[in-house]
Amino acid sequence: MVEVGQAAPDFTLPDTHGKPFTLSALEPRWCLLYLTRIVDRGFI
Which domain of life, per UniProt (predicted)? Predict the structure, then answer.
C-alpha cells in the first residue's frame, strides 16, 4: 500500500481510447490520480 506523500508505483493501463498509458511517461510533471472501481460508478 502507498502511504500519503509517497510516489505512486509505475503502472500501465489502457486509456479511454484503449491505448496503453504509463504513469512514468508523465515524469517530471505532477499529476493527480483519481482511482475508482467501475462498480462504484454504476456501470456494473
Answer: Bacteria
Query: How far, in Å, CA of 6 to CA of 20, rounded?
Result: 24
Cis peptide leading into residue 28 (ω within 30°): yes
pTM: 0.54
CA distance 43 to 2: 27
Exposure of 8 by Cβ count < 10 A (0-12 exposed, 13-18 middle, 19+ buried)?
exposed
Strand-pair category, 12-14 with 20-22: antiparallel
